[in-house]
Amino acid sequence: MAISKDLVAASATPMILSILAxxxxxxxxxxxxxxxxxxxKMDWTDGxxxxxxxxxxxxxxxxxxSAKSETGRTRKYYRLKKSGTKALAERRNQWMLVHSALQQxxxxxxxxx
Amino acid sequence: MSDIEERIERWRAGLAGSExxxxxxxDELESHLMEELEHLKASGLSGEEAFLVARRRLGDTSALExxxxxxxxxxxxxxxxxxxxxxxxxxxxxxxxSLWVTKASTLLGYEAxxxxxxxxxxxxxxxxxxxxxxxxxxxxxxASRSRSRTPSGRASVSRHAGLFVACGIVALWWTENxxxxxxxxxxxxxxxYSQFIQASGWASMSWGCLMPFLVAGLVAVLALCKQRCxxxx
Lengths: 113, 233
Known about the structure:
heterodimer; A: three-stranded antiparallel β-sheet; 3 strands; globular; B: mainly alpha; 9 helices
């Protein structure tokens, strides 16, 4: 079961912010983490992650810096800022609200059947 | 450079040359592509296969451009306005360069003792030779730039093109007025002034006749370059 495009797009921001809340990361590692978390079912087009990262940086939720990898390649790392942590808490509440609303609906429906 | 490296370089150049992506985003996407390439090669894919899969996973360049354009919608408009202004300034630069060469070649011929019709022939010849030389230098520069492996060098020239053109116009304008009108024309006898007008007029006309062919040639070369680099999209 693949997750619909709309849901992938809607969950991109909280997903990225949550991954960065675990620690600084870079594009390729973020994509890998998303695949790992969703068991490969949330398959993003890799390149589409970057506009989201740039938008979050423009909004002031994250910041970036360059650092060398073990192989000597320059990577652009992203770090969550205080405002990003705040935004993540807000998003989390919103998702939990949607989740609980849907759960209530589905639970009551299960009882009926 | 191996075939894969060359294809990566062409793909990267396409990203860096985009009006919304630019060099730093191209670096970031290239770094991603390289990591994916290494991962795919380690899992047993050939270089060619790994490149094709990694590129496909990153997505189409035009779709990426659309997404990046949404992040900063004014960037694309600003970029287009910048190049339009640079184009207009470029026209004035060529015009002043033509006037500069016309006056310089006519006065050079006059100082060397040439008088009409030889002065006119000499001015026309120098005018055409100067622009053919400049055209050849520009083409050589673009050919070497497209082969260049250093992306930062390529982008810095593009970014400052408008500034170079504007400085060029100011320099030509000042030297043209101060040097030719202020100093050298005074050395000319009044009776010879008509020779100067005639010779420089013909020289200007020879350049004017040549201009459409040069522009058509430049457009053809650019179109050919674009056709030869399908990897950039």
